[in-house]
C-alpha cells in the first residue's frame, strides 16, 4: 500500500508506544491485538527502529496481515490487520 | 509455538536485562519460557536482592552511566521484564540447587516471587535438548 492509502485507512485501534524502547512496542501491539476483532485495523506508533522490522515479522508468524509503515518525523506508523 | 530455554549463568544486571529482552520477544511469539538459573545468577533471585545494582559484567567501569541510560530510555528493570513476559506466556524459573546453596538459598521462601522451583542440571540439559530455541547467558 502507498503512504496515501495507509494514511487514509480507517483505524480501529491506535497504540502509542513511542515512550517505550524495544521490545516494548511489540508487547504493546500484542496486548492491543487481543482487543480488536478479525478484519479490524490497528496502528502502532513507535520511535524505535527495531520495531519497524519486528512487527512485520511478528505479523507473519502470528498470521496477521502487515499493511505497511509510514515514516513521520521522529517516529513510525505501522499498520496491520488482525486475521 | 515451541519452547525457549535460557541457561542463566550470570547475575549481572546487563545479562539479566538481556535475558529479559529476549523473554519479551519469545512471549510475543507465544513461546513457553523456561529459565534455568545457574551459579552466580542465583544471587539475583534471592529474596531482597531484586533492587541490587552492584554488578555489570560488560564495561564495569561505566556501570553507572549504563544504568542511567537504561532508566533514561524507560527500559524496564530485569524483574519487570520477567513479570511482563509472564503476563503473556507460561514462564518457569528454576534455581539450580547447587547455585541456591552457594548463596544460602535452600528453600523456596529464600527466593523471590519469580521463582517456580529448584532443578538439577539434568533437567536443564533435557530442556535445552528439547527446546526450539536455547541460549546460555
Defining key terms:
heterodimer; A: 83 residues; alpha+beta; Translation Initiation Factor IF3; B: alpha/beta; Hypothetical Protein Ychn, Chain: A; 5-stranded parallel sheet; 6 helices; globular
What does this structure look like?
The complex is a heterodimer of chains A (83) and B (137). Chain A is α+β, with helices and mostly antiparallel strands. Chain A has a single domain, classed as 2-Layer Sandwich (Translation Initiation Factor IF3), CATH 3.30.110. Chain A contains three helices and four strands. Chain A has a four-stranded mixed beta sheet. In chain A, a hairpin with a 2-residue loop joins β3 and β4. Chain A starts with a helix and ends with a strand. Chain B is α/β, with parallel strands linked by helices and 137 residues long. Chain B has a single domain, classed as DsrEFH-like (Hypothetical Protein Ychn, Chain: A, 3-Layer(aba) Sandwich). Chain B is 42% helix and 18% strand. The longest helix of chain B has 16 residues. The mean pLDDT of chain B is 94. The chains are: A alpha+beta (83), B alpha/beta (137). Chains A and B meet through α2 and α3 of A and α1 of B.
How does the overall form of chain A come out from the CA principal axes? globular
Distance between termini of chain A? 18 Å
How many domains is the backbone of chain B divided into? Answer: 1
Question: Mean pLDDT score of chain A, rounded?
Answer: 95
Tell me the strand order in the biggest sheet of chain A: 1-2-4-3
pLDDT < 50 runs, ≥5 residues of chain A: none
CATH class of chain A: Alpha Beta
CATH topology description of chain B: Hypothetical Protein Ychn, Chain: A
CATH homology superfamily of chain A: TusA-like domain
Which overall shape of chain B is indicated by the principal axes computed on the Cα atoms? Answer: globular
Describe the strand arrangement of the main beta sheet of chain B, using strand numbers. 4-3-2-1-5
Strands of chain A, count: 4
Number of domains of chain A: 1
